[in-house]
Amino acid sequence: MKLYFSVIVLFLFGCESSNLKPNLPSLAVKHQITKSNIKLPQYIVDSLKSGDIILRRGDGPLSFHLSNTTKEPYTHCGVIVKDSNQWNVIHSIGGQVSKQEIDGVQKISLTHFINNASDSLLYLCRPIFTEKANQKVANRAQYYLKQKVPFDHRFTLLTKDKFYCSELLYYIFKDVNNNKNIFTIKKKHKAYLLMFSTFFNSSNFKKIYAVNPKKIK
To answer: Which CATH superfamily is domain 2-18+34-215 in?
Structure first.
């Protein structure tokens, strides 16, 4: 029982892995994807830059469970990049049951990323913690995409050979910031949590847009 509880705590890092342990009854709820009603205003789309950060809360029951447990509004994050005039998001997510799904760092369209968000929660911000942060973050995200880094189902935070979602951004930021960490890290039940409140620090990130910003403290 202690082992299962530890696994639950590790999931609280805020990633939407669909490879759930079958004997976790409190989380064993079938995920039904519903299309989000969120649509970014055109002036926001026009203002985006590669390297901007996007946060969401997923539309599945696991995401709501994680959000309610951590008391943070978001459960997933990624880096916005532009390729061939299309906005995409580089993120790390656990593969689906189908073997055709990618397990780890991958790229999807910005529209697809938003469509899988809860209707009430979306947040965009811009890194400002180092010179030319956007360019550096975008380039490093592309680097890890090319490396095809797999998803970190053990949530270890110790090595760069596997990443869960916020772990990907944790290492990207360290790579471009002279190995200095900017993430807020909290210890809970013997696990270290990468907190999404990191992105609300106005010294390191500039807010671009938020859906339901009242959720943000």
So the answer is: endopeptidase domain like (from Nostoc punctiforme) (3.90.1720.10)
